[in-house]
Every structure is written in C-alpha cells, then in structure tokens.
Amino acid sequence: MSTIPESVAKVRARIREAAQASGRDPQDVQLLAVSKTKPASALREAFACGQRDFGENYLQEALAKQAELADLELTWHFIGPIQSNKTRALAEHFAWVHSVDRLKIAQRLSEQRPAQLPPLNLCLQVNVSGEASKSGCAPAELAALAGAVAELPNLRLRGLMAIPEPTDDPAAQRAAFARLRELKEKLGLDLDTLSMGMSHDLEAAIAEGATWVRIGTALFGARDYGQPPR
C-alpha cells in the first residue's frame, strides 16, 4: 500500500503528464486533495509534501479538522451538497465553495461572508449528465443563475464544477467534461476555473481544460464511510 508521500508524487506526475499530453502548462492544473472521512493526521502528511488545498464534503468534519490543523497555512474548499442552515459556517470558514447550484444559497453566502475576509471564491455546480440523484443546476438554467450570482457582493464567481456520471470509457469522460467547458465559454463571463476530474478520470478532465482536479482515493486510499461526520 502506497504511503501518502508516494501517492502525492504519483498524482502530481499524472497531472503533469496529462497536461503535457494535451499541450497545456502543468502549472495551470491545480490539485485539490479531497480529504473527507480521513483524519487530520493524513492531511498533515500531505501538507508536508507541499499540498495546501483541501476539499471537504461534510461541514462538521471539516470544521473539526480546521481546528486541529489551525497551525498550518491551508486553503479550505467545500465541495459537498449545501443546505441553507450551513451557509453561515461555509461563508465564515472556507476560501472556496465549489458546489453552489441555487441562487438562494449564493445569496446567503454573500450576506453571511464576514467583511474582514476576501470575497468567497465560488463555482456553480452543473448536472452535465442529467442524473436525478445528482446535485447541480440544469445546463439550461445556468446562464440565468451565473448572471445573478456574478452580481452579488462578497463573492467572486470563478467558474463551474461538475461530477459527471461515472464511466470507464475515456471518450464518454471527455464528452462530459467538454460539455462543462463549452457551457463556461458560452456564458461570456470572466471565469477562470473548471473544477472537474477525480481519481479515475483526471486525464480526460485535464484534456478538456480542468483547472482543479479533485483527488481523494488516489491520494489517501479508499474512504471509510462507516460513520461519516456531518
């Protein structure tokens, strides 16, 4: 079983090779370490390897880790589904939120972002595969949502995020990511972020323009879903 330093090195190599194969600068693809269900000690190990950006899905788990790792200079990203009663904590404790899919949530984040903090970096989650079980706004609703969110104070709309339907077919992987890229381009807004690609499909995502790849299993191993904190 690989150690975390070995896994970090392997994932960084995959990102570099995928970017080079696509004619992209590897520096334009950032690694977001998805650390849900993993202990703070694992994040500390990844930090020692130079990792600074961490993504969490469960708010209470994330807040506990933030407290335990307060001695480290980390950038925290929230990537899970958002309930209205969690927006204040998100606005107060995170630098990025990747999973906004409703104007109400964005408005609450804007209203609740502390004045002393910089604008909250935001991505809009799009349901590019049309799965009923998935969060995300419908592609047809994206332009109106993006236009409204871009006008809100205390937020900086950075781009789009997607979790396409899993598939082992590289062509199908690329088609889903290409759709997200095309949606971003059609918005005509000043957006610089495509948050897409995970452990099994990061190469396809990078080929289609990913700027953040959200990697969990390939860094930290299989997740323990016995009692996921909320």
From TrEMBL:
Q: Which InterPro entries would you find in this protein's record?
A: Ala_racemase_N (IPR001608), PLP-binding_barrel (IPR029066), PyrdxlP_homeostasis (IPR011078)
UniProt keyword Transmembrane present: no
Entry superkingdom: Bacteria
One example GO MF annotation: pyridoxal phosphate binding
Gene3D superfamilies according to UniProt: Alanine racemase
CDD domains cross-referenced by the UniProt entry: PLPDE_III_Yggs_like
Q: Which HAMAP family match?
A: PLP_homeostasis (MF_02087)
- Any idea which residues bear N6-(pyridoxal phosphate)lysine here? K36
Q: Where is the Alanine racemase N-terminal domain?
A: 9-223
* Name of the molecule in the record: Pyridoxal phosphate homeostasis protein
Q: So what does this one do?
A: Pyridoxal 5'-phosphate (PLP)-binding protein, which is involved in PLP homeostasis.
- Asked if DNA damage is a keyword of the record, the answer is no
Cofactors: pyridoxal 5'-phosphate
Pfam families to which the protein is assigned, alphabetical:
Ala_racemase_N
Give the family, as the similarity comment puts it. Belongs to the pyridoxal phosphate-binding protein YggS/PROSC family.
Q: Which UniProt keywords apply?
A: Pyridoxal phosphate
